TrEMBL record:
Signal peptide extent: none
Protein name listed in UniProt: Phage tail collar domain-containing protein
Recorded coiled-coil stretches: none
Membrane-spanning ranges: none
Species of the source: Pseudomonas piscis
């Protein structure tokens, strides 16, 4: 029990000591990842270097802080924060785990109960472990702040480190900040340049610009005055000079309504054009003598159009093709129709037949095969079909559905039937029967992918009561033992007097009490009617009746057997090197990275170099810590990690698929 003589301490485990020595020797980093706490099942634990786990761990979480003791640089301090909503257990033991998940340090502590917030009291519990190491150079003192719960002291220290010190308080019109928004410096500029403004005049620049503009205005005055004098002379020194100039400049030429009004004499008027066109093509009917030629314009094709407010009909030539098409209200409308009364239309010497004059001599070629008519879902003569396709064909021809039970006078089941013997069958082999029976006759030990047949051996069949009330309480497929209908017998009196005596009650010599006496036993071992022994079979699949010498059912069973043996052969264990080859993976492997063997088979790994040390871990087990060379086997599905520091002439090869 815990008392004033109890000792509390922390120590590296054997695995932790080995890893520290390896990290120091190879110069590789050693990272602490998680801390765990436990209640030791109520005992008073004493840390043991051989421990690989806590006695009874109840929480594990990332470390909150890893640092060295300012007073002693060989003391490592690790810390974890347990929030108020976690607890309900005692704290008696503490464990530290590295990035590989190994327990590298263990400690005990005075028993402390960590309550839950729901219990009415809650607190944030801080767990620290201090332990001594010989060298802290390779121990990583960084943590991932995104996955831990920080203490207030940790936050205060972090803010004190991040915020600049010795900055004077005050109001500044120009400041410099860093990427976190922290003000680094502040100033109060007194000039335009101090604020970074480049598109404004300073006071001296403004004065100079004004002086320059005034000088330019004075310099241009004589020329402006000369121009005004010339205008005034041209207007006769009109006293209303400004008004006269405005009116004169606003005047413009009168607008004409004809070509002649603008003085144009070589243009065709509207009347001229109408007369010229009317002379070529009558606008209101009539006959035009001679051919009409439509010239092919640049990029256009000859085109003739007939138009009404709703209908447009076109004939044109494009790419040596004569086209006729029409639109009705802007939509493609009528196809080409040639109607010559009493005549048959023809194109390039070929008669265009239609429903009114179809010539039976010109008809579609008659095909002699299903494929010739494009039929793909029919059975063809001489074709080869799978068992499923044959079963589908015979399902419609069979007189008995799957699941029907039939008695046979011989001990051999007909094709398509199985003896109803209560045996377990494969759902994959007899899917239709399995779907029909379901689990009606299952006992619970059939295994995955199997179902059970009814057992009719030695049984009489009886119709299901189905609500009639004769055989009450029976469910389909249930068994019923033999039975005798309840009845009574008359027992004759041993003492008879005279002829014609009848049976009467037995006398027991005037004594009171019950009297029992068995009758003589007659009959067999069961109650049964006359019967004929048959083998009841159940329809398992729709199979054709075998008319030849090939037993289809037996052949199907053999094929299933061959498939199973082929699968077993493919899945047989293969030796190392069988179907594998050496592969150089130096370029794609990284020191200290955990890899997984996903090939489904064992692989052989070999790492070598001329100088340096190597450290190998497979499935969390340390295999070797040596120099120059390491060779090992990785089982299928196992993880492996190779760690080395600054090797020379590194070669990493693997025998794998």
């Amino acid at each position: 029990m815990i008392d004033s003589n109890s000792q509390f301490f922390a120590t590296l485990t054997s695995v932790g000591e080995a890893k520290q020595a390896n990290a120091t020797a190879l110069g590789i980093p050693w990272t602490f990842k998680e801390m765990a706490v436990g209640d030791a099942n109520g005992s008073d634990p004493v840390p043991n270097k051989t421990q690989t786990k806590l006695i009874n761990e109840w929480r594990r979480a990332p470390v909150n802080q890893v640092r060295t003791d300012p007073a002693n640089p060989n003391v490592i301090i690790t810390e974890q924060v347990i929030p108020p909503d976690v607890g309900g257990h005692w704290l008696r033991e503490i464990g530290l785990f590295d990035a590989d998940g190994d327990l590298v340090a263990v400690a005990n502590c005075a028993p402390t109960f960590k309550p839950l917030l729901a219990q009415g009291t809650g607190k944030t519990q801080i767990i620290r472990m201090n332990f001594i190491v010989s060298n802290t150079a390779q121990i990583v003192l960084k943590i991932d702040p995104s996955v831990v719960l920080a203490t207030r002291q940790y936050v205060d220290d972090s803010l004190a480190t991040a915020l600049p010190a010795n900055k004077a308080a005050g109001t500044y019109r120009q400041v410099t900040i860093d990427k976190r928004g922290v003000v680094l410096t502040g100033t109060n500029p007194t000039t335009v340049a101090g604020y970074g403004i480049t598109d404004a005049f300073t006071k001296p620049e403004t004065t100079a610009a004004i002086e320059q503009a005034v000088a330019a205005l004075v310099a241009s005055a004589p020329g402006a005055l000369d121009t005004l004098k010339e205008l005034a002379d041209a207007l006769g020194n009109d006293p209303n000079f400004a008004t006269t100039m405005t009116k004169t400049l606003a005047a413009k030429a009168n607008k004409a309504t004809t070509l002649g009004g603008y003085g144009i004499v070589d243009g065709a008027t509207k009347s001229d054009l109408n007369s010229a066109v009317s002379g070529l093509l009558p606008k209101a009917g009539g006959i035009v003598s001679g051919p009409i030629y439509l010239a092919n314009g640049t990029g256009d094709s000859p085109e003739i159009a007939w138009k009404t407010p709703e209908l447009e009909v076109y004939a044109d030539v494009i790419n040596r093709t004569l086209r006729f098409f029409s639109y009705f209200n802007g939509q493609t409308e009528f196809p080409l129709v040639i109607d010559v009364p009493g005549k048959s239309a023809s194109f390039f010497g070929n008669t265009a037949w239609h429903s009114g004059n179809f010539n039976p001599q010109e008809k579609a070629n008659k095909s002699t095969t299903l494929a010739g008519y494009g039929i793909t879902d029919a059975y063809s003569k001489g074709g080869t079909y799978s068992r499923d396709e044959v079963n589908e064909l015979f399902e419609g021809l069979s007189a008995l559905p799957v699941g029907a039970m039939v008695p046979f006078p011989k001990g051999t089941a007909a094709p398509g039937f199985l003896e109803a013997d209560g045996s377990v069958q494969s759902i994959a082999t007899f899917p239709d029967l399995a779907a029909y029976l379901g689990d009606t006759f299952n006992k619970g030990d059939e295994g995955v992918g199997s179902f059970r047949l009814p057992d009719s051996r030695g049984e009489f069949f009886r119709g299901w009561d189905h609500g009639r009330g004769v055989d009450v309480g029976r469910a389909l497929g249930t068994y019923q033992a033999d039975d005798f209908k309840s009845h009574t017998h008359l027992i004759g009196n041993q003492n008879t007097y005279g002829s014609g005596s009848s049976a009467g009650p037995l006398h027991n010599g005037g004594k009171s009490g019950d009297l029992s006496q068995p009758t003589g036993a007659v009959g067999g071992v069961e109650t049964r009617p006359r019967n004929l022994a048959v083998m009841w079979c159940i329809k398992a699949w729709n199979a054709p009746v075998n008319q030849g010498t090939i037993d289809i059912a037996a052949l199907a069973a053999q094929v299933v057997g061959f498939s199973a043996r082929a699968t077993a052969l493919e899945e047989r264990p293969r030796g190392l090197g069988d179907g594998q080859a050496w592969q150089s993976v130096t370029a794609v492997r990284v020191s200290g990275t955990v890899y997984t063997n996903t090939t489904g088979r064992p692989i052989f790994v070999q790492v070598s170099f001329t100088t340096g040390g190597v450290y190998v871990v497979v499935d969390g087990v340390n295999l070797t810590a040596s120099a120059y060379h390491a060779a090992f086997i990785v089982p299928a599905g196992s993880t492996y990690k190779v760690t080395y520091g600054s090797p020379t002439n590194l070669t990493w090869v693997e025998l794998r698929t």
